[in-house]
Here is the input.
Amino acid sequence: MNTPRSLTRRSLLAATAAAPLATPAIAQNALKGTKLTILAGQWYVPECNTMLDTLAAEIGKDTGMEIRVERFAGDELMTKTAAIIGSGRGADLAVGVEFDTYVYAKKLNDVTDIADEAAKAYGGWLQSGKDASMVGGRWKSLCIGQAPAAWNYRTDMFKAAGIDKFPDTFDDLLKAAKALHAKATPIGMTLGHASGDGRSTNYPVLWAFGGKEFDRDGKVVLNSPETLKAVEWYKEIYQYFIPGTTAWLDPDNNQAFLSGKCSATVNVNTIYLASRAAAATDPAKKNIVDNMDHGLWPRGPAGRFANYNINVWLPFASSPNKEGQKHFLRAWYSRAFLPKWTKTGQSYFIPTFAGFDKEDVWPEDPKLKIFRELNKINRLPGYSGPPSPAAAEAVNKYVLVDMFAKACTGQLKPKEAVEWATKEYEQIAKKRHA
Amino acid sequence: MTLQPGEIRSANPRAERWLYFYAPMGFALFFLVGPFYWMLITALKPDSELYDGTKSPLYVATPSLDHFRYLFEHTEFVTWTKNTMMVATLSTAIALALGVPAGYALARLRFRGADFIGTAIFVTYLVPTSLLFIPMVEVMAQIGLDDSIWSLVVVYPTFLVPFVTWLMSGYFRTIPTELEDCARIDGLTRLGAMWKIAIPLARPGILSAGIFAFTLSWNEFIYALTLVTASSERTIPVGVIVQLTRADFYFWGPLMAGALLGSVPVAIVYSFFVDQYASGLTAGAVKG
Here is the structure.
């Protein structure tokens, strides 16, 4: 594995000196004495955080720019970003989520030139990267990467229930859930207000059955026979879940899986990475590492879908240091940095470039190989309509999650749950279009 | 055994004691001490036990101080504690210095609009911080306090002063005005009567208001998150969350150790002044 030590000032300068993503010397001189504050989250792989710090320090040495990286937890970072957008003070660049791009587009700088250079360097952007960062044909943010969520499952528990491989259809997943429940090793899907797992677990179910929130013109089309089928499937499988999934937040499915109480759940690769890191000293974790694997989402009547958390760089328009922003972003997407950062992340966050499929950025661990495939099938909330503030608001209000949860818990009948969610969507769309 | 006049003998005194004393007390203790017990055992459990579904969650089999060690060696917990202490102490002092005289004025002085001002001050306290934090960031930037812990010392009194004023105006109303009238007949000014008569009598109320104000500023989250960026200037509630969560992974042991230790200063403040705090809370409760 590459470590942050492999990123040296010399290698960074050598790489940024060669086009594309070259940094003009005149700009470097102009940056002397300027300041750049970057807000970042806590990415799960610690080395990814360290590499960002190292990159910032090297740029500081190179240009004389005073560059500072401050960290916040994911949900807190969103609040902090809202304060910066509202007040115009606090930072020059921040790690955001894709919704921030189109909600705050007017208050972000145009970085189309850097996006084009990066596309040339890495074989073009994947559609999810474009959807995450483009508004009105211009790049208002730059996609850092997406965190593919896979089915994490216990191979030993599946075998004990008579299942040899992870189910490939939703019918088979239902049968598997029933069999695993009978063996007291139930599965669990997040039905709580979890900002990450709530969406990555539930949107793929809707899409796989052919349901959609919006059509291509942005009209609400949730109330459909396909959505109803998805809700009915969910209601049926819910009875075989581990108890408590309607209250699950982002860390809860990790804990349930790590404690051996849950045989399968939808998550990024952090469960596996955490177990692998602790396996040398903790026999229980070693047992999990030896007996778990990752599976693709099953195929539904409409196909196989997935939804992941996306991180983007938000270049605040309020920043007095636009050149500093661009200089940092060029260094981030440079060949000296980005492929190494990606490989270090072990497919936890994967940049959305088509050419990365052929790059040496993929983990060697066979249990992480599937993430290369998963990287290609991400859809953003609002699909098949364009990404929009309305779709973002629906995610933040957990409308889709609550639709499934209300039906699963019997609070509403499946048809009523769909009608309730449709009304919520229509209200959001009306407000956003007003 | 002979019964005293007015005494009614219970058929089963032990059962009654259990029913009317121990059971309600146990119920209250479960809710009040339960969270602290949970924090303590989670902080003392090694990770291998914390994530072992076969072990009982109610006790610790192999206690360890590793999580406390991690908290002190791998985070800036000591710095956050100092910051929190400084901010809470100063903002409470400011809130009391402004809120106590304001409460006295609202309770005693008869001027046009006194009732309206009293209500308006209370309504100010009710405005949620989630609505105010963005304009407040802008205001702090304009006065040159953006990204500074001192902004919290300025901002916290904006909700503490209304709270203290409202609490103290109620408390001053429970003190008979005749005491101050006598003092003024004896030659004291209005301010002198307030300082020498009303404020000493209102000490339990001032302590209650101070303890509440201290607790509110100790636990405050949104302003502490949005007004301060530098890690070295954060308070405990923000610092702990930021450094002890990584993506969807929560470091429950150190988190609980931080939450437990973070609540100790508030508990100490309460324990020092518990008698006066209780009398402050119940002031006027039995007044006819």
Observations:
- The interface with chain B takes residues 37, 39, 41-44, 46, 70-74, 76, 79-80, 82-84, 86-91, 147, 196-197, 250-251, 254-255, 258-261, 267-268, 270, 274, 278, 282, 284-285, 348 of chain A (CB under 8 Å).
- The CA atoms of residues 114 and 363 of chain A lie 27 Å apart.
